[in-house]
Amino acid sequence: MIYHKPVLLKEVIGYLKPKENKEYIDVTAGGGGHTLELLKKKARVLAIDRDPEAIEYIKKNQYKFLSSGNLVLVKQNFANLAEIAKNWNFKKNNGILFDLGVSSWQLENETRGFSFDKSGPLDMRMDPELGICAKDIINNFNERRLYEVFKTYGQEKFSRTIARAICRARQVKTIETTAELSLIVKEVYQKRNIRSKLHPATKTFLALRIVVNSELLNLEKCLPQTVDLLKKGGRLVIVSFQSLEDVIVKRFFKQEKKMKVLTKKPIVPDILEILKNPRARSAKLRVAERI
Ligand SMILES: C[S@@+](CC[C@H](N)C(=O)[O-])C[C@H]1O[C@@H](n2cnc3c(N)ncnc32)[C@H](O)[C@@H]1O
Questions:
Q1: Which residues bind S-adenosyl-L-methionine (predicted)?
Q2: For residue 170, is pLDDT > 70?
Q3: Which mutation among 5, 49, 127 tests ligand 1's pocket best, with the greatest number of atoms within 8 A of CB?
Q4: Could you say which DSSP state residue 257 is in?
Q5: pLDDT per residue as tens digits for the range 21-74
Q6: Closest ligand 1 atom, CA of 34?
Q7: Is the CB of 4 under 6 A from ligand 1?
Q8: Which domains, from first to last, does the chain contain?
Q9: Beta strands in the chain (DSSP E)
Q10: For a Cys staple, 225 with which of 66, 82, 106, 160, CB 3.0–4.6 Å?
Q11: pLDDT tops 90 at residue 198
Q12: Model pTM?
C-alpha cells in the first residue's frame, strides 16, 4: 500500500493535545497517520473510514494498539457518527478529527479510478459497496445534469463544452476508463488553446468524486453530530482541501453557538511541508472548541 503522509500533523496534534486514556475520534482514518500519533500518546481512538482497504491497512499496521484495546476500528460512513460513537461507547470525547478528501493510496491506485493521470476503470467509490460509480454518471446523466455536476462541484469554466463532448463521445462507445475521460476533457482545452498549471481534467474529476461519494452531503450531516460528542473543552479539528468543503465548515462554525472558534484564519502548511508533500498545498485547518 502506498504510504499516505499525514498533512499538518504537528498542528493537528498540537490542537488535539492527546492524553493518556482520553478519548478521540478520527472520522477519516485513511492510512492511520494522525491516529497513530494519538495512540503514541496513549490516547484511546475510535478510527472510522468507509474504505475497507484503509481499515485492513490500519488493522495490519497498528495491530498492537487494536489488541491493547486503545484502538477501535470501524468501517462506516461518518455521516452516521452519532450512532457509531454510541455503539462503541465513545460518547464524550476530547477531540474529533476530520482530514477530508482522498488518501494517496486511493489516488495512486489506478484500480480505484480516482486519478486522471493513471489509466483505470472509471470508478471513484471510496466504499466499493456504493451503488453508483463515476462510469454510471458519465454514461447515463443527460448533458444538462453533467453540466450542472461539473459547474457546481468542480467550478469548471468549460462545463457546458465538456458535458457536450462527453455526450458525443459516448454515442460512439461507452466511456469506460479514466484515460478516456481525461482525453475528452483535454481535447476541449486543447481546441480552445487553453494552457493552465492544473491538468485540464482536474476539476471534472473532482466534481465526479464529490458526487459519487456524496462528500458534501456527508460532511453537512456529520458536523452537527460532533457537538454533543465533545466534552467541554473538547476540540473539533478539520482539515479540508477544497473550497466547497471549507465553506461548509466555516458556516457551521459560525452558526453553532456551543462551539468557540480557535482559528480566526485557517492554518495552512508551511513551504517546507509543501515541498516535502505537494498534496498538502491546498490544505486548510480550522479548529473549534466545545464550550
Ligand atoms: C485524506 S485521507 C485521511 C488520511 C489520514 N488522516 C492519515 O493521516 O493517514 C481521507 C480518508 O477519509 C475517508 N473518508 C472520506 N469520506 C468519508 C466518509 N464520509 N466516511 C468515512 N470515511 C471517509 C477516505 O476513504 C480516506 O481514507
A1: 32-34, 49, 78, 99, 106
A2: yes
A3: 49
A4: T
A5: 999 999 999 999 999 999 999 999 999 999 999 999 999 988 788 888 999 999
A6: 8
A7: yes
A8: 9-105+215-290 (3.40.50.150), 131-212 (1.10.150.170)
A9: 23-26, 44-49, 71-75, 93-99, 230-240, 259-261, 284-290
A10: 82
A11: no
A12: 0.96
